[in-house]
Structures are given as structure tokens and as C-alpha cells.
Specification:
By secondary structure, this protein is of the alpha+beta class. The protein has eight helices and eight strands; from the N terminus they run ααββββββαββααααα. Helix content is 48%, strand content 21%. The strands form two sheets. A four-stranded antiparallel sheet has the order 1-8-3-6. The protein has a four-stranded antiparallel sheet with strand order 2-7-4-5. The protein is globular, with a radius of gyration of 18 Å. Keywords: Kinase, Transferase.
């Protein structure tokens, strides 16, 4: 139950206080899903009809280009949310893969369960608006970094923003997120140590 309490903490940090009854209803609306390392929560071509909250573990969200090259869009660890928002909101096939990098436990809520909750708990709509805003800010920051920073600056920014991820990710995964080769990442790291 303590693990599930982190979901409520995450929601209430968005600036809304929930009643005990609302908390219970929210917790009852999420299902616990265990994903083994390398297993998928979502594959490209499937409809993303859920949103998920990471309790334990680490996942990557990525796309494959026409040559089959993987491009990591973001990572999600404890206290982060996962979904393909385009697929979720348009009911269209996903372009993303969501894969566990470690054994994971996530709380998942389907669209069919979540939408009626808005009528029962109006504060959830406000929470969702705040979450969407935060996601837009993060994606905007990522785009600006891509357009204005070289790879070394991007790596340094990644290290500052996500220091706890550095021990959990491989060089290949970090390089994929940055959009560079593993060899180039090694050169950047080598220069940083000098």
C-alpha cells in the first residue's frame, strides 16, 4: 500500500488536495502491472489506451527509424508517468515502444476507467492539465536543447537534470537519447574527465 501512496503524493504535488474517499477511488481505479526487464508495456502499432505511473524500475520510450535505428524519446523511473499521448488522445496506432530496462512495477489506468473519474473527482482534470503542461515544458526544453546545444552541452545538461539515471543506463542508451554514437559519447566523457 505504501507504494501506491506514491501515486497520491504525485497527484497532490500538482496543487490539489484530495479527500480520503477520492484517494481510495483513485487507487482502486489503477491496476498494478509487473513488467520484466526487456518486456514491453506498449509496441508501435498498438493503441495506447492507458496511462501508467512508475512505482519501481526504469522504462524507455523510443521509436525506430526506417533503418531500424532506435531513438529514445525519454526515460521513466519512479514517480514518472508513461504514455503515448498522441495515441491516447486520438485513438490512433502508436509510433512508440515502451520497454522495461529493469524489472518494473507500474500502476496503469485505462482511458475507459479514467474518463468517468473526471465526473466523480473534478480535481483530476486540473491535475491532468498541470501534468500536460509539465510534459509540454519538458518536450519544449528538449527541442530547444537539440536546436541550440552541441552534443557535449546536451550531455552535460542530461547529467545535471538526471544524475540518478547515469548509474542506471548504459552508454548505448544515453547515446540513443542524445542522438549520437556510443563512440562519440565516450569521447565527450573522456574530455570531461580531463
Amino acid at each position: 500500500m505504501m507504494k501506491r501512496a506514491s501515486l497520491i503524493d504525485n497527484l497532490e504535488r500538482k496543487g490539489v488536495v484530495l479527500t480520503d474517499q477520492e484517494r481510495e477511488l483513485i487507487l482502486a481505479s489503477f491496476e498494478t502491472v509487473h513488467i520484466k526487464k526487456k518486456e514491453y508495456l506498449l509496441k508501435a502499432g498498438e493503441i495506447c489506451d492507458f496511462q501508467a505511473f512508475v512505482i519501481t524500475g526504469c522504462c524507455k520510450v523510443y521509436i525506430l527509424d526506417s533503418q531500424g535505428q532506435e531513438h529514445i524519446i525519454y526515460f521513466a523511473v519512479e514517480d514518472w508517468w508513461l504514455a503515448d499521448l498522441e495515441s491516447y488522445h486520438t485513438n490512433s496506432p502508436s509510433k512508440f515502444y515502451i520497454q522495461a530496462l529493469e524489472d518494473c512495477e507500474v500502476l496503469r489506468i485505462s482511458r475507459d476507467v479514467k474518463e468517468p473519474l473526471y465526473d466523480k473527482i473534478p480535481a483530476l482534470e486540473r491535475i491532468y492539465r498541470v501534468m500536460l503542461g509539465q510534459e509540454c515544458v519538458a518536450l519544449q526544453r528538449r527541442i530547444i536543447n537539440k536546436l541550440t546545444m552541441d552534443a557535449a552541452m546536451e550531455y552535460e545538461d542530461f547529467c545535471k537534470r538526471y544524475p540518478s539515471l547515469l548509474q542506471r543506463l548504459t552508454n548505448i542508451q544515453i547515446a540513443s537519447y542524445l542522438g549520437i554514437s556510443q563512440e562519440f559519447l565516450s569521447k565527450i566523457r573522456g574530455k570531461k574527465k580531463i
